[in-house]
UniProtKB/TrEMBL annotation:
It comes from the Eukaryota. InterPro entries: Plavaka (IPR041078). This is Uncharacterized protein.
Amino acid sequence: MLSPDLLHQVIKGTFKDHLVTWVGDYLEEEEGKARAAAIMDDIDHRIAAAPAFPGLRRFPEGRRFKQWTGDDSKALMKVYIPALVGYVPSEIIWALAAFLEFCYIARRSRFSPSGLDELDKQLNSFHHYREVFRETGIRPKGFSLPRQHSLMHYRTLIEEFGAPGGLCSSITESRHITAVKKPWRRSNRYNALRQMLQTNQRLDKLHALRVDFVARKMIPPFHQMVVKEIEDDEAGPVDELDAIKSGSITSFWIPS
């Protein structure tokens, strides 16, 4: 039995790869490609019109990303259902609502028996309402999908191994960003492996030096460098050091 993977089974798997895709397929099946494209444009406008609110990400261009990430999917979950109202049957809305409830419960760090009961309840509700995709011809052969089947084992796996967040592949993927992607961007792209290894070695040494300085009370323990992702129109997200090289931002130190 595979361990639960929130990122690929739930967030990007069932939500992004299945449900969001099925909604688009349903609109094309029922409305035709031209009308479906116009509806999808309006759905994007609705998503983009979501007001600013703490914890709510805005999508100025709707759901049409250059590349989907787990964070994109999690942010879209919060605004997707209201954008669909009026264009899809109520059963699709209810299927999405039940699945999102399941997702939010599964992402908890602690579980009680009542929480696990609610997890099962929302999963059963999702299984009931997703039948609309079979009835409308979007999934005529049913739902023999490994990622959706895995959801049926979540309660047992949570009882055996604890919260799924501790087993999620997003942990290793985030490390892949810091250990591979960012050092690659800092290289000159020629014989990059040697440069990437050198970058990681230097960062490890700087981290060890900082720990030593904190232990000796040479620097306060709460100082950290401001690092944030900056969107580059051509290359995608780039880190602050790349922006410093380009002269678009300066780096400084502040208390956290």
